[in-house]
Amino acid sequence: MVVAEVIHETADAKSFVLDVPDALSEDFSYRAGQFLTFRVELDGVAHLRPYSMSSSPLLDQRPRVTVKRVPGGVVSNWMNDALAPGDEIAVSVPAGTFVVGGPGGEIVAFAGGSGITPVLSIVRTVLAGRDRPVRLLYANRDPSSAIFRSELEELARGSAGRLAVTFHDDSERGILTPETAREFAAAATGEFFVCGPEPFMDCVLDALADAGVPEARIRLERFTPAPPAEAEAEADAGPSVRAPVQVSFRLGHRRVSGEARPGATLLQSARALGLRAPASCESGSCATCMARIVEGSARMRENEALTSDEVAEGWVLTCQAVPTSPSVRVVYE
Ligand SMILES: Cc1cc2nc3c(=O)[nH]c(=O)nc-3n(C[C@H](O)[C@H](O)[C@H](O)COP(=O)(O)OP(=O)(O)OC[C@H]3O[C@@H](n4cnc5c(N)ncnc54)[C@H](O)[C@@H]3O)c2cc1C
Ligand code: FES
């Protein structure tokens, strides 16, 4: 892709509008809330990072991502400091399950900091295309760090009452408490979307659990992986198969099968068998690697992307799934 435009949003965030070549426009069609994975090579080292689109597939001609600096972060700072209009950048096709698709009713969204990017896309798309009302709680350190603040205020003014935004600024009200989140969620019957820093997400999820919101109605997007120590401890506790496992994979017309290394994830096994299996974050957050187990079973070390209904239907995140049966058959759909 070529970077068509760079927009200065706040002191530590910029948006990048991308030019999609005509020949690739179908491949790059996306749903509101999805992300693109960027491949950035710096000093000979390749880094893969997912960035959610803040643009709306219904309203904007070109996709736009918005990147906030992470202190000490390799790619977010490089993009903010160096990526300029006219530059070329390698980007993989859209992916992700943080999308609207539930039973209808109100959309209730909680966004913290850069978590506003996919949420803005969802809010604008829902307001443009459907009749559903939207309520958004948007938390930030202070008013100046709130990306898209004036755009959201304008959207709410022009929405004929369909969009209500509550800005929560830590500098004025302290960090968000579960009580405030619970009050905000009260009596909502539709779909819930939560995206933000870990403590913010934990606070909102506790509040939604207390308010009795079923897990199946909550969509999460985690920008940061769980600490590796936790994932490993959980993995060690589970009953993965220690003997060699027979695995087979189908991706489109390609089929591969063979013996997997004990303890290897399905993604690692697929790669070892020569399959170019899809993946992005490789930390259980993005669902790019999701596939369905049609025979056998596996246990996920981390799952921040699939709902319990999807898991019950046999979907797994292959980057996190370790076989728990002597043979496993996997289909990428
Ligand atoms: C599905 C998905 C969508 C995402 N969408 C966006 C988006 O729209 N906009 C956006 O700005 N970012 C988004 N991210 C986060 C982004 O992919 C990078 O993780 C982030 O920019 C940091 O990368 P880095 O190379 O700068 O930092 P790294 O060099 O990878 O990390 C440096 C340090 O910062 C920590 N860290 C990593 N990410 C974060 C974070 N988000 N907040 C706080 N600390 C962190 C790491 O644990 C590490 O210690 C998304 C992540 C996922 C999984
Ligand atoms: S690659 Fe992101 S969840 Fe597996």
UniProtKB/TrEMBL annotation:
Cofactor: FAD
Pfam families: FAD_binding_6, Fer2, NAD_binding_1
Residue ranges annotated for the 2Fe-2S ferredoxin-type domain, each copy included: 245-333
Domain of life: Bacteria
Keywords, comma-separated and alphabetical: 2Fe-2S, Iron, Iron-sulfur, Metal-binding
Xref: CDD domains: fer2, PA_degradation_oxidoreductase_like
InterPro entries documented for this protein: 2Fe-2S_ferredoxin-like_sf, 2Fe-2S_ferredoxin-type, 2Fe2S_fd_BS, Beta-grasp_dom_sf, Cbr1-like_FAD-bd_dom, FAD-bd_FR_type, FNR_nucleotide-bd, MRET
Protein name per its UniProtKB record: Ferredoxin--NADP reductase
Species of origin: Actinocorallia longicatena
